[in-house]
Specification:
By secondary structure, the protein is of the alpha/beta class. It has a single domain (2-160), classed as Flavodoxin domain (Rossmann fold). The protein has six helices and seven strands. Strands 1, 2, 3, 4, 5, 6 and 7 form a seven-stranded mixed β-sheet that branches. β3 (52-60) and β4 form a beta hairpin.
Length: 163
Amino acid sequence: MKTLLVVYHSVTDGTRQMAEAAAAGATTEPAITTVLKRAQDTHPEEVLTAGAYIFAFPENLAAMSGLMKDFFDRCYYPCLDRLNARPFAALICAGSDGQNALRQLTRITTGWRLKQIADPIIILTYAQTPEAILARKTIPSADLSRCHETGAALASGLALGVF
């Protein structure tokens, strides 16, 4: 059975909601095992055994969150040249932009030679004050539906051998 690995980091719960929605969408495909893991708990062996990925994380200070970057730092070289052409999708929760975090992910996934199968989903919370930035986030259901659909599409394509 093929595995879809959803790796996420979340501090204020927004990204966790997005990752869980994508994982729930993926579980609609019975031929795929979906694994939802926090970035800090994910190891290179799990990345190597998965057939596809969803990377979900917040943008912090105009960059990929630290623990997500740590995940890539720990897994990058053990997985280099061993993931070529595997599909992935990206989910980013950001206060105002998300583009710098996406650029970082694009550089990493280009190095791993992964294949992006969907436009990245960047959900903006518009949090700009210290209180709003640190507050628990509630992602609107319409945005969570987009994450769910991405998970379902990636799992279906993986099951059908499209990717």
